[in-house]
Amino acid sequence: MPLPRRRSSFLGPPSERAVTTPAVHRGAFLGGVPGVVSSGPGARVSRRALGISSVFLQGLRSSAVPLVQRAGRTGSSQGLDGCLVEYRDKVSEAILDNARLMLQTENVQASTEDFKDRYNNEQPFRRAMEEEISSLHKVMEEAGQTRVHLEQQMNNMRAEIQDLDQNHEEDVRVVYHQMAGLDLDESEAPIKTNLDQILAHIRSRWEKVIERNRAETDNYLEYKDEGLGSQMSPGQEELEDLKTECSESGCRVQSLQAETESIRALKRGLENSLGDARHWHAIELQNLGSVVGRLEAELSEVHGDVEEQRRGYDALLGDKTRLEQEIAAYHGILDREESRYQPRPGTAQDA
Asked: Any stretches that span the bilayer, and where are they (predicted)?
């Protein structure tokens, strides 16, 4: 803040302002710095600034009163004394402004240290959050490996089901070949159809065979009743053979039906297990995705807070640098003014 220089002639008449300006008593500001009010426990008072200002103001008070109260001086001397008093008043105001600026600088330094402490306190939370996120990434990797393992198991189960289907088709072909001696048309066997159609076809064929055997048995009994007594015993043996063969065929059909039902139940169980595994895997992935999203949002908020604190810290450092430059400029101005108006030894003896 440049000080306005007062242009005054040393030979001219003294100005009314210089004559009528009373001597300012500078001892009123020694108890405290005007304009600086303690706003709370956070405001700190600079002992160095107050000490410098008080010592300098005491020197001004001790040197300013004799200059104004001396009598028998000429008009030019009185004008020069008025200029000196005015400049010393301005210098005292500049010193007080300097003290205020030093107080503000210390407040800025205190807030800067506070921000630094808060930043250091936030660092453990940030590291803990990063460790938690890394652990969640590991859990996600393990879940991916589990998923790959389950998919491999699913593929193996599908291959086993295909093998079971092929084995069942081969068993059906073998049964058809065994039934070829009972006048069954092998060309009508559904080789490349599903399991239900094959079972229905087998059931219908065996029903036809049973009906035909029953009809043959009825015809044979009728023939027996008509009086063919000589051929009774061979017919009974053949009938018993047919009954035995029919019972064996029925047992075989029942065993095939039981095997088919067991294969079908195994297939349904594998499909249900596969569906449950997919369902729980999807739920687990969804939960992990929500947890990761929440943690990423919290991490972004922490990054935003840290960035905001860093910007505030940079702004405070800039203010501190600017205030130090202004304080240095004020010190330079005060030194120049003091050296300019400091009375020389020869001049003081002449006066």
From this structure: none
**Comparing C-alpha atoms, which of 243, 219, 221 is closest to residue 232?**
221
Report d(CA 167, CA 169) in Å as an integer: 5
Q: What is the DSSP letter of 191?
A: T
Phi, psi of 110 (to 5 degrees): -65, -45
205: Cα separation from own chain's centroid: 69
In whole angstroms, give the CA distance from residue 29 to residue 140: 70
Amino acid at residue number 164: L
Q: pLDDT (tens digit, 9 = 90+) per residue, 173-221?
A: 777 666 655 444 444 444 444 566 767 777 777 778 777 777 777 777 7
- For the chain, the domains span 16-131+310-350, 135-302
Q: Which residue is listed with tokens 């023939």?
A: 223
The three-state secondary structure class of 230 is: coil
Radius of gyration of the chain (CA): 57
Give the CA diameter of the chain: 185
pLDDT per position as a tens digit, 29-44: 333 333 333 444 344 4
Q: Label each residue of 19-39 as H, E or C.
A: HHCCCCCHHHHCCCCCCCCCC
CA dist list (Å): 103 to 7, 48, 58:
34, 10, 21
Q: Report the number of secondary-structure helices (H) and strands (E) in the chain.
A: 6, 0
Contact 85, 64 (CB under 8 A): yes
Structure-token match 């297990």, residue found: 273
What residues contact residue 306 under an 8 Å CB cut-off, 6+ apart? 119, 122, 126
